[in-house]
């Protein structure tokens, strides 16, 4: 039939006319499997299988799984009934505060207890005060415990938001850089610190003023590392605004 002859002619033309280099390049690109263009990207499956056009769930949950193996839970919320969850203001429903597994998996038993103790003191769960004093022998991991506490407070809280937005670590001048190395060592670059060590007076004032005005949950440099002497000299700048 005419249709069969036409189909055969088109097939012959297809075989005779080869694909151009441009068409071959495009076909090669389109044949590759999709890959997220971010190094060491790990997809977040905590939200379940989401589809386009579907509203995200408003269920409040902890940043990390409190039931996970080796989980270090610093705060356990009340056991709400289903009726309370339905009738309560959703912003007032509390969640667990769980230490990042990156740190909880390397903490030793006495360090886990130390982190829990500091958290409860800072949050006022142990009395009518907020704060504590770390007094332990050298080499038992006080710095790691402080790094864990700071990272936890900066990332989460019982009300599904960070407990603090910024923090200042005041130490002897010889240990400022050591603190910066410790934060990078244990958090693998997940937290950026502003280390004030040396430099001109103008540069120091500019850096401190930028640290003070930088606020919000997306603060790029939430940790200031500074020596006792420098803190005393520039305390008037750091005390301009109350930091959370």
Structure explained in plain terms:
It is built from ten helices and five strands, in the order H-H-E-H-E-H-H-H-E-H-E-H-E-H-H. With 244 residues, the chain is mainly alpha-helical. The strands form two sheets. Strands 3-5-4 form a three-stranded parallel β-sheet. The chain has a two-stranded antiparallel sheet with strand order 1-2. The radius of gyration is 28 Å and the shape is globular. The chain has helices at 2-16, 21-30, 82-87, 101-104, 109-122, 142-155, 176-187, 201-213, 228-233, 235-238; strands at 73-75, 97-98, 167-171, 193-195, 223-227. The model has no long low-confidence stretch (mean pLDDT 84).
Task: Give the SSE layout.
Elements: H1 2-16, H2 21-30, E1 73-75, H3 82-87, E2 97-98, H4 101-104, H5 109-122, H6 142-155, E3 167-171, H7 176-187, E4 193-195, H8 201-213, E5 223-227, H9 228-233, H10 235-238
Parallel strand pairs: 3-5, 4-5
Antiparallel strand pairs: 1-2
How would you write the strand order of the largest sheet? 3-5-4
What integer is the average pLDDT? Answer: 84
Total number of strands: 5
- Roughly what fraction of the amino acids lie in strands? 5-15%
Shape: globular
Kindly report the oligomeric state of this protein.
single chain
Please report the number of helical segments.
10
Query: Residue ranges: pLDDT <50 for 5 or more in a row?
Result: none
